Please model this.
Amino acid sequence: MEMKSIILFLIIIQSIINGVNLAKAQPPIIRDWHVCRGGDFKSNTIKKNRDSALDKLMVLIKNNSSYNGFYHTQSAGKPEEQVSASFFCALNVVKGLCECCLRNVVQYIRKNCPKQQEAVAWDFYPYLQCMVRYSTGRKILSVLDDWAWGRSGEDLSVKTVLI
Model:
């Protein structure tokens, strides 16, 4: 009878150990990446055009009734001072979250690439991904730039690649 009690006691202890997660809960992983390149703006007009293009992206997503997750705009002016800007949000993300992500990435890119001619920035949250990209003096729509993206074999998330 005593052997049965010991075995029962060990089974209960083992089930308690297996049932209790002793690991400390971690906050969700929030990753962001950015790449700036091209040197400083050659004129204050370029900075104004960059800010205008980024602001237009926010207006486009806010005022557009047909949400599709992709928006592109280009500022006016001389060709060398024009700024082309694009925004992408995964289609499985609702418009409100996408708009919030865009606002955060635009603030982030203005802070981390304050005077650079070109930049791209991503934000990754669980189930939410978005990207903002701008370039001065050239169009970026349908142009593949290796410096702006890459794929990691481990977790299939986008990472920057500098060439």
The two ends are 73 Å apart (CA to CA). The beta strands are 31-40, 70-74, 83-89, 116-125, 128-136. Residues 85 and 134 are 4 Å apart (CA to CA). The longest strand covers residues 31-40.
